[in-house]
C-alpha cells in the first residue's frame, strides 16, 4: 500500500489505482499458473502411464516387457521405438457404440481411455529385433539383446632401435 500512497500524492485518482492493482494481481496470478502448471496433455499422459501396470524381465538373451492392456485388441495397440533408446507402448480403449436406442449405463467400472507406457532401453537392447504378442489382455514385448562385444586382443607394435 505504500506505493499507492505515493501515487495518490502525485494526483492519481484512488479508483484508478485500485483498478491498476487488480490488473497487476491478475496478471501475476495468470503468469504463475501458466509457467508452473503442467499442460493438460502432459497430465493426461502421466495419468495414462500411471494407470498402465507393467513388469520387465531380463533373461540372458532378451528383455521381456509385460503390460496389462485389458479390453484392447492387437489393432488398437502401437509399439514404437523412439530415438533408438525408448520403447513406447500405447493404445486407446473407447466406449463401444450401442446398437440399440435407449440403452443407458447403470454402472460403468471398466477402464476407458488411453494406455501409455515408456521404457528406457539398455544400451545392449537390439532395437532391430523386437516382437510383440497380445493375448488375454496382456501384451508381451520381447527385445533381443545385442551380442556382447568381442574382446579385442591387444595389438603388439614392433619397436625399432635407432
From TrEMBL:
Q: What is its main location?
A: cytoplasm
SHSP domain residues: 45-160
The GO biological-process annotations, alphabetized, read as:
response to stress
UniProt cross-references to InterPro entries, sorted A to Z: A-crystallin/Hsp20_dom (IPR002068), HSP20-like_chaperone (IPR008978), Small_HSP (IPR031107)
Give a Pfam family name: HSP20
Task: Give an example GO cellular component term for this record.
Answer: cytoplasm
Query: What subcellular locations does the record give?
Result: Cytoplasm
**What name goes with this protein?**
SHSP domain-containing protein
Amino acid at each position: 500500500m505504500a506505493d499507492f500512497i505515493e501515487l495518490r500524492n502525485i494526483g492519481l485518482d484512488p479508483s484508478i489505482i485500485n483498478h491498476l492493482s487488480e490488473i497487476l494481481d491478475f496478471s501475476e496470478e495468470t503468469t504463475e499458473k501458466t509457467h508452473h502448471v503442467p499442460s493438460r496433455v502432459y497430465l493426461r499422459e502421466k495419468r495414462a502411464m500411471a494407470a498402465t501396470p507393467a513388469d520387465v524381465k531380463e533373461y540372458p538373451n532378451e528383455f521381456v516387457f509385460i503390460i496389462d492392456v485389458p479390453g484392447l485388441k492387437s489393432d488398437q495397440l502401437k509399439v514404437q521405438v523412439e530415438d533408438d533408446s525408448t520403447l513406447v507402448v500405447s493404445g486407446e480403449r473407447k466406449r463401444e457404440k450401442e446398437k440399440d436406442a435407449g440403452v443407458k449405463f447403470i454402472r460403468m467400472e471398466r477402464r476407458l481411455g488411453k494406455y501409455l507406457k515408456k521404457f528406457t532401453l539398455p544400451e545392449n537392447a537390439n532395437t532391430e529385433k523386437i516382437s510383440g504378442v497380445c493375448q488375454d489382455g496382456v501384451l508381451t514385448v520381447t527385445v533381443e539383446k545385442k551380442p556382447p562385444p568381442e574382446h579385442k586382443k591387444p595389438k603388439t607394435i614392433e619397436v625399432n632401435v635407432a
